[in-house]
Amino acid sequence: MISIKNVDLIFETNDGPVQALKDVSLEVGGGDFVSFIGPSGCGKTTLLRAIAALEMPTKGHLSVNSKSPDSARIDREYGYVFQAAGLYPWRTVEGNIRLPLEIMGYSQAEKKERIQKVIELVELKGFEKKFPWQLSGGMQQRASIARALAFDANILLMDEPFGALDEIVRDRLNSELLDLWMQTKKTICFVTHSIPEAVFLSTKIVVMSPRPGRITDIIESTLPSKRDLNIRDSQEFIKIAQRVREGLKSGHQDEVL
Asked: Predicted confidence band at 166 (pLDDT cuts at 50, 70, 90)?
C-alpha cells in the first residue's frame, strides 16, 4: 500500500537548511496498523505529511497504492485525521461529515447512505444534528474520524488524534479505533508519543530517532489481532513496550555520538 525508499526531507529556513528525515525506508502492507513513535521533532508528522503529499521529499522514492503521493491525493486514496478535530463550528456533525462528499460530487442518496454508515461506525448515532461545541473532545475526534472515513478510502492517516485527551477517554477511543480497524480492514498509519498506545493498537511499530528523523527499529507485533485493554498487563505486551523504549533510547544515544 505504501512504499518508502531512502527518503530524505530537508526544509529550507531563514537560519539555513534543516534535515527532518534521513534515509527512511519502510513498507506498509494492506490492512496494516502502523504506529510511528519518537521524541518531539523526530519527523513523525513530517513523514505522515509526505505520504499525504503535504510535504515533498528532497531525495528518495515514496508511493501510495503504486502512485505518487500527489496522484494518490488527487484520487482520494486516503483520509487524514489531524491532531485537532478541525470541525467547522457552523456545521453539525452530519454537515461536517458531508463536506468531503459534497466536494467529490456524490449524489444526495449516496451522501445520506455514507453519512449514516460512518455515524453508526463511530457510535455517534443520535448526535447527527449537534454542533461541535455541543460535543466532548472525544466525540469531536470521532466525528473527525467519521469524516475521514466517509468517502471510503483504503488508507487512514492519523496524526496524534487522541494526544490532547485525558487518559480515560483516550483508552476508550483506542479500543473503539481498534474495533473500527478490525471492521473496516483499512490500512492505518498512526503518529503517537505514547508507548502503551503504540503497542496496544499496532501490527507494526516504527521507532524513530531525534532529528534528523531515522528509523531505529521496526517491531512486528506478536499480540493477537483482537485485544482489549487488559492485554496491557500481559508479559508479551510488556516485552514489546520494553523493546520500544530501548529503540527510543538507542536513537538518543546515536544523537549524542
From this structure: confident
Q: What is the pLDDT of residues 39-81, one digit of tens each?
A: 988 899 999 999 999 999 999 999 999 999 999 999 989 999 9
Q: How far apart are CA 9 and CA 6, in angstroms?
A: 10
- Nearest by Cα to 206 from 81, 30, 28: 28
SS3 124: coil
Residues 230, 149, 97, 164, CA torsion sign? positive
Question: How many residues in total does the chain contain?
Answer: 257
- Could you tell me if 147 and 99 are in contact, meaning their C-beta atoms sit under 8 angstroms apart? yes
- Phi, psi torsion values for 84, nearest 5 degrees: -95, 150
Q: Which three cell numbers stand for residue 20?
A: 527532518
Nearest Cα residue to 32 out of 8, 49, 51, 13: 51
Q: Answer positive or negative: Cα dihedral of 54, 56, 57, 60.
A: positive
Q: Among residues of the chain, what percentage have pLDDT more than 90?
A: 75
CA distances from 66 to 72, 109, 128 (A): 9, 32, 36
- Residue the block writes with cell 505518487: 68
- CA distance linking residue 98 with residue 118, whole number of Å: 11
**What is the pTM assigned to this prediction?**
0.90
| The one-letter amino acid at 197 | E
CA atoms lying within 13 Å on the CB side of residue 158: 31
Residue pair 213/55 in contact by the 8 Å Cβ criterion: no
Distance (Å, whole) CA 208 – CA 116: 38
Residues in Cβ contact with 64 at an 8 Å cutoff, skipping those fewer than 6 apart: 1, 2, 51, 72, 77, 78, 155
Q: Which domains does the chain have, with CATH numbers?
A: 2-77+154-256 (3.40.50.300), 86-152 (no CATH)
